[in-house]
Here is the input.
Amino acid sequence: MFQFQKKKLLAGAGLCFILLVGVAATTVKDKGPKPNLKVLPKDISHEELEKIMKGFNVSLGVKCNHCHAPAKTDPKKLDFASDEKPEKTTARHMIRMTAKINKKYFNQSGGEDVAAITCITCHNGKVHPESKITLPPPPNR
Ligand code: HEC
Ligand code: HEC
Here is the structure.
């Protein structure tokens, strides 16, 4: 399960979090049970979840509403449990992928050590990571 990855994801997210303090206005306000966690541990603490989510914001350069749909009752609020937005589903795949890369290729599957890669490794503050290389122009001689 995802458990093994938790600490490392947190460490990565924690780093982002340090950069973020005082910047993000939105927080995880609802401290109740989180009914719709399918990848992260169901017993995750409020603080841990908040760190991870803020880490996602920084890593992708987005706000919470990139992945979370507006609430039906009050569109000014977000319905965090809703799976309506495809970006949320993609993010679940991404969490699993990142955990798998760390485990399989960096042998990071347990302990307190920092994950070899996190969301920001690829995303670097952008929704769509770079995949094409633009070569510099040849030097003038
Ligand atoms: C890149 C996409 C993404 C961003 C950005 C994001 N989240 Fe999430 N969030 C998710 C995913 C995916 C889950 C479900 C994780 C799972 O299934 O284990 C989730 C779950 C949650 C939950 C638990 C919902 C429940 O009841 O099951 C809360 C609360 C939450 N996010 C708050 C936030 C807040 C607050 C922000 C902004 C600071 C934020 N999220 C930004 C992807 C995102
Ligand atoms: C190994 C590189 C890599 C890592 C690590 C990675 N991603 Fe991605 N991610 C991608 C690529 C490539 C795409 C596709 C971008 C595109 O469609 O242009 C993508 C797409 C996404 C999208 C959909 C973007 C959209 O269109 O809104 C989300 C959401 C996302 N990633 C979230 C995450 C989260 C959250 C993490 C960390 C748990 C993560 N990613 C880690 C490479 C990565």
Notes: Residues 1-8, 10-25 have pLDDT under 50 and may be disordered. Residues 24, 26, 28, 34-40, 49, 53-54, 56-57, 60, 62, 64, 66-68, 80-81, 87-88, 91-92 surround heme C (ligand 1) (CB under 6 Å).
